[in-house]
Specification:
Blueprint lengths: L1 H18 L4 H25 L4 H4 L1 H46 L10 H26 L6 E8 L10 E6 L11 H12 L4 E4 L15 H5 L7 E3 L15 H18 L1 E3 L3 E7 L2 E7 L15 H4 L9 E4 L4 H10 L5 E4 L8 E3 L4 E3 L10 E4 L8 E4 L17 E8 L1
Parallel strand pairs: 1-14, 2-3, 3-4, 4-5, 7-8, 8-9, 9-13
Antiparallel strand pairs: 2-14, 6-7, 10-11, 12-13
Helix pairs in contact: 1-2, 1-4, 2-4, 4-5
Length: 411
């Protein structure tokens, strides 16, 4: 709060001279708009300390908070350039006084410092462009769903599974959507892919199960020849809510289990299911959330989940957090052919070109988006990190677009 207030005060006083010359109604309007994000942020954080504000109207809270976040990032970018301009002015002031003292010549009055003005102009332009881009990310790119098609070859794939089509979706975060329309659009895209299997890799909701209820009709309409399977992500456990009692939290989880049953998705909780075609088998293994970070639940028990699937020639693991593959799966379970994860969202912000990728996610996660192959593996062993369909924190996407992945398996 102190940091945000410092940013606001510094930028306000930097712009005050230009604002004071405006007409009173305009000046009043600008003042309200300028300080409104801080008021909204203070209000939400204050209320949330005594009440579960995120449960009242999740999409509204998400958009208010997200808008405040992008405004402060835009302000911060502007402030950085303004600080550079002020630093330049201070250095120039010191240099002039030192020279005047040495030469005995008076200091010339220079009210206009071109470089300082240039830095301030760049700061305002940068902040404005950033804010504009982030707004577009909220209203357009957040539901600009992209289908990524991945072909994978497994030498041990049984012949009846040749050409098997698997759709992966992840991180729906249903509480962040203001309308059901984007999810209905995504469901139509999924069904048009004519999948044999649809696999969901966690984070159905943000905070509580009730966020999912209004999407029930859309989600239960997802079809696949061999079924729809799901696992839990860190947000599905209700750990980000101050429940009134443990019983209330348990009730929320039981409601989530019931919801998966009602929409016809088979939830794998440290267990597996064998897909059998003409006597040949493929194992789907699902674990509860397992993360290398202490900030997230570590409930996955792969040793239990794989029981009974050891003889399946191809094993596909659903594990929400990609650090699980890095720290356990690739080291101890070389017979797991493919691990499907999500969780990172690619931080919903970055650049993805044909030969260049960048995101803040890469400084937190070694495996943050796309396909990875285990090093020194005796047979192909892959991890795929889905970029997610939904949003959390910032209700939009810039550069890292929402993803539906279609895998085609071949031998």
């Amino acid at each position: 709060m102190v940091f945000l207030l410092a940013v606001d005060i510094y930028l306000w006083y930097s712009l005050k001279s230009k604002i004071t010359s405006l007409a009173l109604p305009v000046k009043f309007t600008i003042g309200i708009l300028y300080w409104l994000p801080l008021v909204a942020f203070l209000f939400l954080t204050s209320i949330s300390s005594v009440n579960n504000v995120n449960l009242v109207h999740p999409p509204l809270v998400s958009y208010i908070f997200g808008t405040a976040v992008i405004i402060y990032f835009a302000k911060l970018l502007t402030v950085i350039f303004f600080l550079l301009a002020d630093f330049y002015r201070i250095i120039l002031f010191i240099f002039r006084h030192a020279r005047a003292k040495k030469t005995g010549k008076p200091i010339k009055d220079r009210t206009n410092i071109s470089r300082g003005k240039f830095l301030r102009t760049i700061g305002l332009a940068t902040g404005g462009l950033f804010f504009s881009g982030m707004v577009i990310g909220m209203v357009k790119w957040a539901h600009d769903f992209r289908v990524r098609r991945i072909g994978l070859n497994f030498p041990n794939l049984p012949w009846p599974f040749e050409g098997l089509r698997i759709v992966q979706i992840s991180d729906l975060h249903l509480g962040s959507w203001a309308s059901t329309d984007p999810i209905e659009e995504a469901v139509q895209i999924i069904n048009d892919l004519d999948a044999d299997l649809v696999l969901f890799t966690g984070d159905l909701v943000n905070y509580s199960t009730k966020e999912a209820f209004r999407f029930k009709d859309a989600l239960e309409s997802i079809k696949a020849r061999h079924g729809v399977y799901a696992i839990l992500g860190n947000h599905d456990y209700g750990d980000y809510v101050n429940w009134n009692s443990e019983a209330e939290k348990v009730e929320n989880m039981n409601s989530l289990y019931s919801f998966f049953e009602e929409i016809g998705w088979k939830l794998l909780r440290n267990e597996n299911d064998i897909i059998e075609i003409e006597g040949e088998k493929l194992a789907l293994i699902g674990v509860e959330n397992w993360s290398a970070s202490n900030r997230f639940p570590k409930l996955g028990k792969l040793s239990k989940a794989i029981e009974g699937a050891e003889d399946s020639p191809v094993k596909i693991l659903l594990s929400h957090d990609p650090t699980h593959w890095e720290k356990e799966v690739s080291l101890k379970y070389p017979d797991i052919d493919l691990t499907l994860s999500g969780h990172t969202h690619g931080f919903q912000f970055g650049v993805e070109l044909k030969h260049f990728r960048w995101s803040f996610a890469q400084y937190v996660y070694k495996y943050w988006a796309g396909l990875y192959k285990a090093e020194n593996a005796k047979k192909p062993q892959y991890l795929y990190v889905n970029r997610g369909l939904g949003m959390i924190g910032y209700p939009g996407r810039v550069g890292i677009l929402p993803e539906i992945t279609l895998f085609t398996l071949n031998s």
